[in-house]
Design goal:
The protein has 211 residues and is mainly alpha-helical. It has helices spanning 2-20, 25-71, 73-86, 91-113, 125-149, 155-178, 182-210. The longest helix is centred in the N-terminal third of the chain and has 47 residues, at 25-71. 32% of the residues are buried.
């Protein structure tokens, strides 16, 4: 949802700003497509770098844990036991669980219960980059489609209104999925979207008049 919202807001704001400067439809669409591609690539690059850094940290933590298991196995067993005691098990049961999990997969147990690293939650840079780029592109395509289909003189109001509608819909869906108040999420996302479009429209109109 975050990537789609970002795509809608940034692309709609760009389209509205260029249209307010009284540019031609061709210029508006070129600017919008360029914004879609640049935004998607930026999201992908940023997400890849961020998640790659997380993956590097995870690998370093696992390497350290692997060394500790090889050099101080008893201390690691006691550490795992303390973790299970803190989670509510009595001492005897916690020790038994720690021993069984250590025997089965010591590194996996410490990775999961000490470091919070699991196969399902491990960092995947390429997957994260593709997901960010694709969601941004889908969001950005919505105001682009509106600009392409509407009359040239109506691009500013139609792109603005349809984009705010898309933002409200996505905000409501994400809030509903997360169990949060829907109205508050809708108001929040549409307010900031409207503010961004108003700012770029003002800048576009200013430069259009100046030209």
């Amino acid at each position: 949802m975050l990537g789609a919202n970002d795509g809608i807001v940034s692309t709609a704001s760009l389209l509205v700003g260029v249209a307010a400067a009284e540019a031609s439809r061709g210029s508006i669409m070129v600017a919008g497509v360029a914004g879609l591609v640049a935004g998607a690539m930026s999201m992908a690059a940023g997400e890849y770098v961020s998640v790659s850094s997380q993956a590097d940290t995870e690998r370093a933590d696992l390497a350290k844990e692997r060394l500790e298991l090889a050099t101080t196995p008893q201390a690691e067993l006691e550490e795992l036991t303390r973790i299970y005691i803190q989670r509510g098990l009595d001492a005897a049961l916690a020790k038994q669980v720690a021993q069984q999990l250590t025997k089965h997969d010591a590194l996996g147990a410490h990775a999961r219960d000490e470091l919070g690293i699991s196969e399902a939650l491990s960092a995947r840079p390429v997957q994260a980059a593709l997901a960010s780029a694709s969601t941004f592109a889908v969001g950005a395509a919505l105001p682009l489609l509106a600009a392409f289909l509407c009359p040239e003189k109506q691009i500013v109001p139609i792109v603005s209104l349809t984009s705010l509608g898309f933002l409200a819909l996505l905000g409501g869906i994400s809030a509903g999925a997360g169990g949060a108040p829907i109205l508050r999420a809708v108001v929040r996302v549409t307010f900031w979207g409207a503010l961004a479009m108003a700012a770029t429209a003002g800048i576009g109109a200013l430069f259009g008049v100046s030209a």
